Amino acid sequence: MQNGKHQVGHFFIGIVVLTWGINFGLVKSAYQDIPPVLFAAIRFTVSGIVIFLLTFWRERSISIRKEDLGMVAAVGGMGLGLYQILWSLGLNLTSASNSALILSTQPLLGTLYMDLIKKESVGKRQYLGMILALGGVILVILKPSVRLHFSLDTLPGDLLTLVAGLCAAIFFSAWSKPLLKIYSPLRLMGYCMIIGSLALWLAALLLPQSVAWGQIGVEAWGSLGYAIFISGVVGHTFWYAGIDRIGVTRALIYLYFIPICAVLFNYSLMGEKIYIQQLLGGALILWGVHRSLRT
Fold it and tell me: Which residues contact 157 (CB under 8 A, 6 or more apart)?
């Protein structure tokens, strides 16, 4: 029974990786019409409402205990809302390559937190596998046409991106584990999205950007729809369903597959070139994740 539960968990996280990997390429183009923070605010508001409706339909209730409100607010506000805000602000102050590379450390940061703070035992084989996979991610991201540029000019953006990654790894993933022993992934994610969206709407008001609503293209609306229903409702709910079944550390390891999915999607539908270096990086990611998950 336990083995079957783990297999379902791995399946759920695999779906998450696929939906989130595709999400990067689709959403990036929509940012030309809709500012990132506003895009995220709309996305998570609608996703949260849809998830609440699904939760009430399945469970006939969406209530949570008063004593859990603080932790749920932290998971949603810090792990989802603040993460999106810091990531967007950081991306404005640094390069896309810097941002992608810094965020790729998220699984390792989350694992260190679970090991050192939460005392969830992590073996040397897992750490070695994660380091190998991180090396593969670096090869995938840093294709020959990309150049990193770390300097005092990019430092504020780099630091904001690093803090964003910490927020996602610690609050959104690690802190959700005890709550998933009480609430279903649907109910918890519904609250996280609504709370996170409140923080995003506040940031959108404080960082006003003009939007020509009448000129937003069909592709941008399509990207928003995908972000709401596929990577939002399906991807985020499956993320918590996977964590509930296989644990935080194993779920975080799967995030190393996202760059591979993103590259394959951009190649097949957007015509981007794949370099030998990226193929080698993909192989290194597969090897590293395999070593980590074998433990």
Answer: 89, 90, 91, 92, 93, 94, 98, 99
